[in-house]
Amino acid sequence: MTVQGVPGIPTAAVSRLVTYLRILEELERAEVPTTSSGALAERAQVSAFQVRKDLAYFGRFGTRGMGYTVSVLKRELTRVLGLNRSWSVVIVGMGRLGQAIAHYPGASEYQFGYVGLFDVKAELIGTPVDVPAQREGVSGSGLAASAQPRQLNIQHIRDLTAFAQQQAAQGRAIDMGFLAVPPEHAQAAAQSMVEAGVKGILNFAPTLIQPAQDSAGHERGLQEISDEWRDVMVENVDFLVGMKRLAFYMLNPQLRDQDPEEKA
Ligand SMILES: NC(=O)c1ccc[n+]([C@@H]2O[C@H](COP(=O)([O-])OP(=O)(O)OC[C@H]3O[C@@H](n4cnc5c(N)ncnc54)[C@H](O)[C@@H]3O)[C@@H](O)[C@H]2O)c1
């Protein structure tokens, strides 16, 4: 599979960039000034060739024989991954997972800021939830100091479109939504997000999102749907996939493959 819009870049390479960035952050914290493809490879458990190949998709970052300056490569990967800008995020589904995500401070380290929380349960609507502050601006040396933590009141999903319009009018259009509803409601909730103009959905529900119905469950004309869903990106996240893969490889260690690209 390749990255949409940029032919020839495997999505696995993008996942590895995220790993390289995490390693660079660790190196920076340890005040290590320079690194090499070999050192990055060892920590990322891939080959040095793989590291060089992944980085080469996005530009020339190092000096031959000299390796990489940690702060420069970190800054460049942050930019390539789009983490040097702020992203406005809504969470749809404020049950166990939605609440856990909302409280987790990790996302805000990269300027993913929660702007709205949505659910359908009457007892949840209006409930205040503490969310981490969104960090503003990334300097060459790292992230600027964060603002104070904030509280958001959970809103009803039917108010998402009006909320999105309000946000857009203030120049803070909603960029992405985290979908944490039961699988049987995921399609309708995703449709509500798309109707509100959300262009990126991180889907935690163990079901495939298919653009086929409106949020009230009515079948719709193909044209109407394809217009709304044009440019919508859906990423599926499922830790159970990881558990099942782990179980399989623990039972069949000899079948653990090398990444075919790595051999290339
Ligand atoms: N990807 C993962 O690794 C992972 C991990 C845990 C759970 N999950 C999945 O995440 C989802 C949520 O799990 P949970 O344990 O938090 O469930 P939960 O039942 O505790 O919470 C789900 C919430 O979604 C709300 N909801 C239902 N329909 C809605 C709609 N149309 N719009 C807005 N909100 C709506 C419910 O009122 C409820 O508050 C499930 O699909 C679960 O399978 C995924």
Automatic annotation (TrEMBL):
Keyword field: Cytoplasm, DNA-binding, NAD, Repressor, Transcription, Transcription regulation
DNA-binding region: 19-58
Assembly and oligomerization: Homodimer.
Protein known as: Redox-sensing transcriptional repressor Rex
SMART domains to which the protein is assigned, alphabetical: CoA_binding
UniProt GO cellular component terms: cytoplasm
Summary of the function given for this chain in its UniProt record: Modulates transcription in response to changes in cellular NADH/NAD(+) redox state.
Pfam family, one: Put_DNA-bind_N
Binding site for NAD(+): G93, M94, G95, R96, L97, G98
Sample GO molecular function, one term: DNA binding
Species of provenance: Deinococcus psychrotolerans
NCBIfam families xref list: PRK05472.2-4
Organismal lineage: Bacteria, Thermotogati, Deinococcota, Deinococci, Deinococcales
Domain CoA-binding: 82-208
Similarity field: Belongs to the transcriptional regulatory Rex family.
Gene: rex
Subcellular location field: Cytoplasm
A GO BP entry: negative regulation of DNA-templated transcription
